[in-house]
Design a protein that fits this description.
134 residues, mainly alpha
Length: 134
């Protein structure tokens, strides 16, 4: 997958995204185990709960950085349109699910899943956006 990426900025962004996703999972598992096995409570729980979000902030920073350094305007435009598709899809799903929770007593959607939902919709947007330019 990375072998086909010739653009250094895009390669760096791709590596950052995969590394960030791995770190979110690792930190989430470690925090869950520490809280379950260590029976931690009080003020220490708050920074531990924030720990899995730190790689997400890093990936968001890298996303902005890639948009800033990408020289190919077409690639930038396609990516920004895919991000907008991700935002729109995420807003639609979370709004619909919120209404289902409020009015139909649907189970609660954990907020920690919203970031994953966003990237799923970004991925769905890629072929849709690219099809517009064929």
């Amino acid at each position: 997958m990375l072998c086909s990426v010739k653009n250094p900025a895009q390669r760096r962004f791709t590596i950052s995204c995969w590394l960030g996703a791995l770190l979110v999972v690792v930190f989430s598992v470690l925090v869950a185990l520490a809280l379950k096995l260590g029976h931690l409570h009080g003020a220490l729980v708050y920074p531990m709960a924030v720990l899995p979000a730190l790689p997400i902030l890093w990936v968001l920073y890298e996303t902005g950085r890639w948009i800033a350094v990408e020289k190919d305007e077409f690639q930038r435009t396609v990516f920004v349109q895919c991000l907008l598709g991700g935002i729109g899809g995420t807003l639609a799903v979370t709004t619909i699910w919120g209404n289902l929770e409020a009015f139909a007593h649907a189970p609660h959607l954990p907020l920690a899943t919203v970031y994953a939902i966003f990237w799923i919709f970004v991925g769905i947007s890629v072929p849709v956006v690219l099809a517009r330019y064929r």
